[in-house]
Amino acid sequence: MKKIALSLTILLGTLSASNATAFDGDVNAGKEKSATCAACHGPDGNAPVNIYPKIAGQHADYIYKQLQEFKLGMTSGGKEGRMDPVMSGMAMPLSDQDMKDLAAYFSSLNMSEGTTPKDVVEVGQQLYKAGDAERGIPACAACHGPRGNGTSLAKFPKVSFQHPEYIKSQLEKFRDGTRNNDLNGMMQDIAKKLTDKDIEVLSKYLGGLH
């Protein structure tokens, strides 16, 4: 908990400087460059296959950061960034401007709504909004917001309406350390405290959070 609190303090201290820099991706250019993305993420950024994330309406800064880190994952042989056998290869030929343009385009689209099963609402809401103090689990809403919209400046992603299967896979990867590109390891620290049931409930809860 102390590590997470310290990370947030450092982050907030840099936001004023970050806020002065506008994101300079070009939506129209991004649309022209997005054809190869459609195979997995759909033509409108709403992935038709639930193991791939919806990226429509995701924060441009977050998409840009992930593309940078997918490329870094490949160029560093998995030692840095975020390594994925598909996305790292797709990001390799992208220039910095390509990444910004694609990020701007997909962020301009609307994410399709999802649903939350009734049987996970009570437990999911408790974990998401309040966490579990006894187990040292902070509220997800502290970073991702009460409606799951995240924050652009802090590069905390929008998690509401996301495919539950994708959320589940990412929480599991944070938990086992195969994904480690989170700020100061915050998500890894949290995910290590989550049980399989916690992850299942949260993943389904976020699907319809709004």
UniProtKB/TrEMBL annotation:
It comes from Pseudoalteromonas shioyasakiensis. SUPFAM superfamilies: Cytochrome c. Gene3D superfamilies: Cytochrome c-like domain (1.10.760.10). PANTHER family: CBB3-TYPE CYTOCHROME C OXIDASE SUBUNIT FIXP (PTHR33751), CYTOCHROME C4 (PTHR33751:SF9). It comes from the Bacteria. Residues 1-22 form the signal peptide. Keywords: Electron transport, Heme, Iron, Metal-binding, Periplasm, Signal, Transport. This is Cytochrome c4.
